Amino acid sequence: MPSHEENEMYMVKEAQRLRKSDPCAAMAWIITAKTLYPNAFNLQYEAYLLERDGQNYEEAAKCFSAIATNFQNQHTELWQEINSLTNALRNENETTPEHEFYVKMYKHLTPEVQHNIFMHTINHSADNLERIYIYILMFNKFPKSAITQAPRLLEMLAEGMKTEPDLYQRILVEEVLPMIQNKPPELSPNLACRLYTSSLEFYLRQIMDESDTADAWKNIFKVLMICGQMMGWEPFLPFSKHVNQNVYWEKLVDILSGSPAGSSQVLFYATTLFIYSLHGYIRNCKLKIEDADVAHVLVEGFMEWSPEGDGSDVPSMEPPKFSLTTAISPELSKAFLHAAQCWQLLNTDQFQRDFSQLMLALPLAPWISRFLFDLAIYFGHRDEANKLMAEMTTQSSLVQSLQILSLNLMQGSMTLQGFQCILKILSELPTTQGQLLENMSLKGHRHMVFLPLTRSALVQYCVGAIISRLSRKVFEPNCPDRLLGDILVLQQLNLLNDVLLTQQIFSLIKQRKSFNLRTLSTYIINIDLLEELSHIWNSQQEDNFELTSSPISSGTPTATTVAGGSQSRRIGTRGADKGARDEFRAITRQQIARCNENVITLLANFINQEHLMLAQHIFGISQPVETIVIK
């Protein structure tokens, strides 16, 4: 006599044989078999297949519920169907008949069965990523389940980031955090901090790729709030690009005052504010000028010198100020100072170790190296700045030469290396013309300048560096004519901003019986200077005043026309030199006719062609310095 199993299998096979050709007969076999053997999986499963193949969503759901409830762990066929169901739910936008069936059948399952399907799938899946996707699917279908299940999901995400950080970070910030943001679960501080650091790393990569940075920062602050809620922190401020950074800093100081030493809350709030300020600084260091992206470099400003002395030679313990040289200077200086405030806080004993580890975990190396160099410049730490500059590998030679020159000026005197940097800078001038800057020289205190890398600003800075080194010599006894004349040429760029120096030069000229102004017919084109020279000439009619100059040139400076020597022409104010007045007027008219020439190009050529004489003025030497032609 056949056993129960044999009878059961016989009925199943008969139902399977008739399933395609005669579904009604097949169902009759199944109904009969289920009556005889109600706890047989094969019969229950075959009944489900009949309903599935017949696209009977509601009846199929009843059969599926029965086998999912009563046969959870025993049969691979059941898990294959569950996988097909969950895959269809994860890809509901697909329109294949198979996907459509599973999605519609799911809607006829009871909520309890739906939830159990997800949980059993999670518990029996060996694939970490697969379980994470099922969790996300379950949270979408059952939002309340996130309250109890989210910590486990977040732990799995943190674990996955060890092997595939990009993928798991994206899942965290784009799929998981938005689902739990309204009611974040409580987490251990270590896990919450790891998740925030990973989220920050994800968004920083977006920011560095120049995508929508405002949205990225809005999301960073949102994630910070979520992780703060997980650990019961006092809320920080939400992000708004219209909020002054002082407001964020004041909030941080307020939280700091009520927190224990080394508080993780202060660490992460201050780190976020530091990176936000740092990004604002780095981003604003580039500005569009004349349709070109022009970088700005932090350099030492010039201090006006007075022969009476004003205490400016005495090093001040006060931090330097920022000169408002360009429209972007205020925003740049604020971002830099806020970043500096946060950096100093985070490098105190209570935070330094944890902050250093955070910095190593984030993709900030290029920003940090630039910021630390500028910070060393700002605080006047020359040795540290030199060390940091040697470690910076992305610097252009133009920027490096400019920074070396700035370090020279910081120490109070230009070295031969600094002068060589001027020549290198002038050899690499960019095509963007730009504008001359205001407030490059200030009186009484050290100050910093954000210098745009334009032709005008770079030449202005090089000229200012030379003048700042030479100006004191004008007030020394027996100042040579050639030095006075060369300073007059350089002063054409900054005439109104250093009236005292110009007055001293003209005062010395008036006191002399003769003056060798060899550069007059080649390099002096400023109308104010020409008018003053004409005034001196005319006022000295009764004295035997001689003005030595190169002969009238065609206007383009060359090595021949500036050589002086035997080609110089002496013009006296007395009638002994017939035609002298006409010759002086001719020189003056010629130079006035050139007054609209590009003074930037003129002075760049002057420095290049007269670099030996300038080096002799500055260093008292006449050894060769690398000659570079300015085009």
Look at the helices and sheets and give the structural class.
alpha/beta
How much beta, percentage-wise?
A: 5-15%
Average pLDDT across residues?
84
Low-confidence stretches: 558-566, 627-631
- Kindly report the spatial arrangement of strands forming the biggest sheet: 1-2-6-4
Estimate the helix proportion, in percent. 55-70%
Report the total helices.
Answer: 28
Overall morphology: elongated
* Terminus-to-terminus distance: 110 Å
The number of strands is 9
Main beta sheet = 4 strands, mixed
Radius of gyration: 40 Å
Organism: Drosophila mauritiana
InterPro entries: ARM-type_fold (IPR016024), Int_cplx_su10 (IPR026164)
Main location: nucleus
GO biological process, one term: snRNA processing
Describe the model.
This protein has 631 residues and is an alpha/beta fold. Helix content is 61%, strand content 6%. It has 28 helices and 9 strands. The chain has helices at 4-18, 23-36, 41-53, 57-70, 76-90, 97-107, 111-124, 128-141, 146-160, 165-180, 189-208, 213-230, 245-257, 264-284, 329-346, 352-361, 365-379, 382-391, 397-410, 416-427, 455-470, 481-491, 499-511, 520-523, 527-539, 580-593, 599-609, 611-619, and strands at 286-289, 292-300, 302-304, 321-322, 441-443, 447-452, 514-516, 546-549, 569-572. The strands form 3 sheets. Strands 1-2-6-4 form a 4-stranded mixed beta sheet. Strands 7-8-9 form a 3-stranded mixed beta sheet. Strands 3-5 form a two-stranded parallel ribbon. A hairpin with a 2-residue loop joins β1 (286-289) and β2. α18 (382-391) packs antiparallel against α19 (397-410). The longest helix has 21 residues, at 264-284. The radius of gyration is 40 Å and the shape is elongated. The termini are far apart. Residues 558-566 and 627-631 have low confidence and may be disordered.
